[in-house]
Amino acid sequence: MLWIIRILIVGLIAGWLANKVMHQDSSDMGKNLALGVVGSIVGSLVGALIGLQSTNLIGSIILAVIGACLAEWIYSRYLAKH
């Protein structure tokens, strides 16, 4: 049960940071959480593919932010209504 809370916290932080990095609106916490959780999954997968795996919280957040930036870019490029 604790890992779910960690994923949500890391996802929320990563989504918020990714929105700041990508210069997007960061007021929608639901979108931040969704992109952050997707980003943490993507970041973990990409990190594993290139040999970077994190076991600590800071490393997890960094990989999640990278993944969330990628998810934010894909979302804004292909899924957001213009």
Notable features of this structure?
82 residues; mainly alpha
Description of the structure:
By secondary structure, the protein is mainly alpha-helical. The chain has a domain at 32-81. It is 78% helix and 0% strand. The chain contains three helices and no strands. The chain has helices at residues 2-21, 29-49, 57-79. α1 packs across α3 (57-79) and α2 crosses α3 (57-79). It is globular. The termini are far apart. The model has no long low-confidence stretch (mean pLDDT 81).
**Number of continuous helical runs:** 3
Structural class: mainly alpha
- Helix % is over 70%
Global outline: globular
Q: State the separation between the terminal residues, measured CA to CA.
A: 39 Å
Q: Mean of the pLDDT scores?
A: 81
Unreliable sequence segments? none
The SSE string, one letter per element, is HHH
User: How many β-strand runs?
Assistant: 0
Main β-sheet, in a few words?
A: none
Strand content: under 5%
Gyration radius from CA atoms, angstroms: 12 Å
Membrane topology: Multi-pass membrane protein
Pfam families: Transgly_assoc
Family: Belongs to the UPF0410 family.
Keywords: Cell membrane, Membrane, Transmembrane, Transmembrane helix
